[in-house]
Automatic annotation (TrEMBL):
PPPDE domain: residues covered: 28-165
Entry keyword Transmembrane helix: no
SMART domains the UniProt entry points to: DUF862 (SM01179)
Region (Disordered) location: 1-22, 179-215
GO molecular function: deubiquitinase activity
Organism whose genome encodes this protein: Davidia involucrata
Pfam families: Peptidase_C97 (PF05903)
Sequence similarity: Belongs to the DeSI family.
Lineage: Eukaryota, Viridiplantae, Streptophyta, Embryophyta, Tracheophyta
Keywords: Hydrolase, Protease
GO biological process per UniProt: protein deubiquitination; proteolysis
Name of the protein: PPPDE domain-containing protein
UniProt biased composition (Polar residues): 1-11
Length: 227
């Protein structure tokens, strides 16, 4: 996969969580929440193909990866099974880990530096690549192949795809929310004033499908920690 499992033995493959003298149990189930991006999935799913978004649920929150125009974290968190702009389909258990919520927060903030919003690519680095990576690092398991099958097929057959899908990042300017604990005294990142829509944006408006849409539900982007 090109990535290594986390080196800290306290959460590698879900085997960690405290030493022998620590009786605190932070065991939690890792869930993959899968969403439909189009009603056509109801038909294409029967033959093992579809356009899906996925997020990883850990300690009562769901984490995903979306596109924006800035070289900062594109990792975001939402309430489980309620990612705005998508239609919830199902949840798949991936395994269990024993990791304190604060430890997981450190982990996901560190991973966020590998997933900047401006590096999102529909075929080679999308939300499902992100959840697959997180699952592998935490549990040593990959997500089911059907979730990201269309991207793999698209990579193999890129010569047959429209140029916009081959080279363009799925873009949508997010509303950036602070995602820090109260004891964190650093200032949250705030993007510049959103740019004016262009003709290219209008032509490619359907390409925003894999980014979290602005809506009534809160989408908080994770502030990355430099490693």
């Amino acid at each position: 996969m090109g990535t290594e499992n986390v080196s800290n033995s306290t959460f590698e493959h879900g085997d960690g969580g405290g030493g022998d003298g620590n009786t605190t149990n932070y065991e939690t189930q890792i869930m993959l929440n899968v969403y439909d991006l189009t009603p056509l999935n109801h038909y294409t799913y029967l033959v093992g193909v579809g356009i899906f978004h996925s997020g990883i649920e850990v300690h009562g929150m769901e984490y995903g990866f979306g596109a924006h125009d800035f070289p900062v974290s594109g990792v975001f968190e939402v309430e489980p099974k309620s990612c705005p702009g998508f239609i919830y389909r199902c949840s798949i258990p991936l395994g269990r880990i024993n990791m304190a919520p604060s430890e997981f927060r450190m982990f996901i903030e560190s991973i966020a530096s590998d997933y900047h919003g401006d590096t999102y690519h529909l075929m080679s680095k999308n939300c499902n690549h992100f959840t697959d990576d997180i699952s592998w690092r935490l549990t040593g398991r990959q997500i089911p192949g059907w979730v990201n099958r269309l991207a793999r097929l698209g990579t193999l057959c890129s010569c047959l795809l429209p140029e916009s899908l081959q080279v363009s990042t799925v873009k949508q300017l997010p509303e950036y929310h602070a995602c820090t604990e109260e004891e964190d005294g650093t200032e949250p990142f705030s993007p510049t004033t959103p740019r004016e829509p262009t003709e290219s944006d209008d032509a490619d408006q359907d390409k925003h499908l894999l980014s979290p849409a602005a809506g009534s539900l809160e989408v908080s982007f994770i502030k990355e920690v430099q490693r």
